[in-house]
Amino acid sequence: MTFTPSNATTLPEEHSSNKAQNNEEDEEDEDEYEYEHVSSDKQLHQESFERASADLEILCAAYPQEISIFSSQPSAGQQERDHDDDLLLESPNERIPTWFPLLFTLSLPSSAIVQDSLASSNHYPPASFGGNITMEFPMGYPKKQLQVISYRISPSIHKEYIEKVVSCVQRTAAESVQVYGGEECGLQCCASALDCWNDCLRQEMEAERIQMEHDNDFCIQKCQKVDILDKIHWISAEKTLVDRKSVFQAHVCAISSEEMVIRAVNQLIESSGKIQRATHNMYAYRFVEITKDGKVLVKHDNDDDGEDAAGSRLAQLLEMRKENGVLVLVSRWYGGIHLGPKRFAHINNVARDLLVDCHEKGLLPETEKV
Questions:
Q1: pTM
Q2: C-alpha distances in angstroms, 364 versus 123, 179, 220, 325?
Q3: Which of 78, 227, 263, 324 shows its CA 20 to 30 Å from the CA of 50?
Q4: Which pairs with CB-CB distance under 8 Å and at least 24 residues apart come from 349-354?
């Protein structure tokens, strides 16, 4: 016998069934909403990727030499890894990645290439590395602006140049989203980056040109002042030799004693801030002295000024030419790239050219060669 409390009630079977059915319908509605929401996100992401990949293709077509694409998938013939990233660097003609992340690197030319090619071309050889910027089309592009991921710069380029370019890219990316809705943001950012970079290099070259002209004028004025006691006249080569940003310039003067050599060298260096800033001022001299008893003495010496064996090579040049009463000094401004043995050839060549030119023009006194 089962005891049932008098106040207990029993739900009808039909009511319980309706409630269970309503719960199932609610769960189906939630699943359907969730599915539609996920599908909508996927569609937006797909549209974003299509826009980004299309803009990346436009970039590769506009700047085939400057743009490199990063891909997480190895491409045919691609063997080398970029040393600063785990992603593989592909040339612009390689396939675009099939999904995010979409990264690319914009290469910036060195000042030497700009100086030679700026007027004739908008593109530069890949080997002319001055710096680079790696950027990313983020998921949500073009509503989300282009992002700067990293940047590198050559040791020979001023760091503030790349910082200016990065700021320019970020500013252009923000303006592109606000004003144009992000249309072709990548192309605008790369164009503004190259313009900013080239402006920096042009200003640097112009400043160097003005400084060189000022230093040359100052040196000429100083060197043209004749010392009545010693008659020290320095003659500087009008043209310089440039190799991989290292600059070589020769100077000569007539001398007749070792004491005169010391004062002549000091006078030349003190006369020009440019020569004072030279990495090396190596020199050699040679003159003939006749003693009271008629003996002929050939006096010669040299100084490397930190450029090992450079002074002795200049001394050998004077010996081979049988120069008499001549002091030759070569200034070198180091450009950040080692030249190896080639630097000695440059030093001797600029010295020989100036000696030949001075003798042909009668700027050095003709003495008996011994």
A1: 0.45
A2: 48, 69, 17, 9
A3: 78
A4: 349/241, 350/237, 350/240, 350/241, 350/248, 350/249, 350/250, 351/250, 351/252, 351/314, 351/317, 352/317, 352/321, 353/237, 353/250, 354/235, 354/237, 354/250, 354/251, 354/252, 354/328
Residue 139 exposure: Cα atoms within 13 Å on the Cβ side? 10
Q: Which amino acid is at 64?
A: P
**Is 249 within 8 Å of 266 (Cβ atoms)?**
no
Q: 53, 36, 68: which is closest to 139 by C-alpha?
A: 53
**Which position has the token pair 């691609």?**
78
In degrees, to the nearest 5, what angle opens at C-alpha 36 toward C-alphas 30 and 42? 135
DSSP state of 80: P
- pLDDT tens series, the chain, 370 aa: 444 454 445 545 555 555 556 566 555 555 554 545 556 778 888 898 999 989 999 888 999 889 988 765 444 444 443 444 444 444 444 567 888 888 999 999 886 444 444 444 444 444 467 899 999 999 989 889 999 999 998 888 889 999 999 999 999 999 988 888 877 888 999 999 999 999 999 998 888 888 888 877 766 655 554 444 457 889 898 888 999 988 999 999 999 888 999 999 999 998 888 899 999 999 999 998 888 888 888 899 999 988 888 999 999 999 998 888 899 999 999 888 888 889 899 999 999 999 999 888 888 877 666 6
Inter-helix orientation angle 185-223/159-180, to 10°? 150
Distance CA 189, CA 129 (A): 19
**Residue in the structure block whose two tokens are 């997480």:** 72
Please state, as a whole number, how many other Cβ atoms lie within 10 Å of the Cβ of residue 39.
10
